[in-house]
Amino acid sequence: MPAIAPPAVPPLPDGEAGDICPSCGSARLITGVDARISRLADREAPLWPPGRPPYRHQVPLSFFPGVGPKMRERLLREVGTEMDVLHRIGRDRIADAAGDRIAAAILDARAGLLALTAGSGGTYGRIGGREETGMDDRA
Ligand SMILES: [Zn+2]
Fold first, then answer.
1. What's the 44 CA to ligand 1 centre distance in angstroms?
2. Rounded to whole angstroms, how far apart are CA atoms 132 and 98?
3. pTM, whole model, 2 decimals?
4. Which of 10, 58, 75, 131 has its CA 20 to 30 A from that of 39?
C-alpha cells in the first residue's frame, strides 16, 4: 500500500485580506484551526487508507472531575500507568482506588459517553461541569 503524502501546501498567513473580525471589525483576524483546515481541505470526505485504525478520543486523567494531583498520583501508584487507567484496567480496580464516580467517568470516556464541552481560543475543552457531576477536583 503506497504511503499517502500530505499535500505540499504553504501555511496560510493569519490576517490575510478579507478576514474581518465579526466581533470588533479588525482586519487582523486570527483564524482558528477548524477554519484553516477547511481552507486547506481538498476532499469532500476523509480518505482513510485500508487497515488504518480509528481515532480514539482520549481524555487526560487530570481532566476528569474529581481527579486532582493527589488522586492522579494515587491512581498511578495503585492501579497502573495513565494508559492502563484510561484504557485497560477494569472498573472495580479503578473504583477501589478512586471511588465509583471517577471509575464510572473513566468507563464512560472509553465508551464515548462523556459529556464534553468544546474549548476554543487557547482554552481546553472540559468534561461536563462540576455542577452536573457533583464532583470537585480537590482529591
Ligand atoms: Zn475582533
1. 30
2. 19
3. 0.59
4. 58
Q: Once rounded to an integer, what is the mean pLDDT over residues 18-46?
A: 82
pLDDT in tens, 70-102: 999 999 999 999 999 999 999 999 999 999 999
Within 8 A by CB and 6+ apart from 91, the residues are 103, 104, 106, 107
Amino acid type, 121:
G
Give yes or no for a contact between 62 and 106, defined as CB atoms under 8 angstroms apart: no
Query: What pLDDT was estimated at residue 11?
Result: 47
What's the confidence (pLDDT) of residue 69? Answer: 97
CA-wise closest residue to 128 among 107, 113, 139, 138: 113
CA of 27 to the centre of ligand 1 (A): 8
Tens digits of residue pLDDT in 2-25? 555 555 544 445 555 567 788 888
Where in the chain are the domains? 13-47, 61-133
Q: What's the gap in Å between 122 CA and the centre of ligand 1?
A: 15
Q: How far is the CA of 28 from the centre of ligand 1 (A)?
A: 8
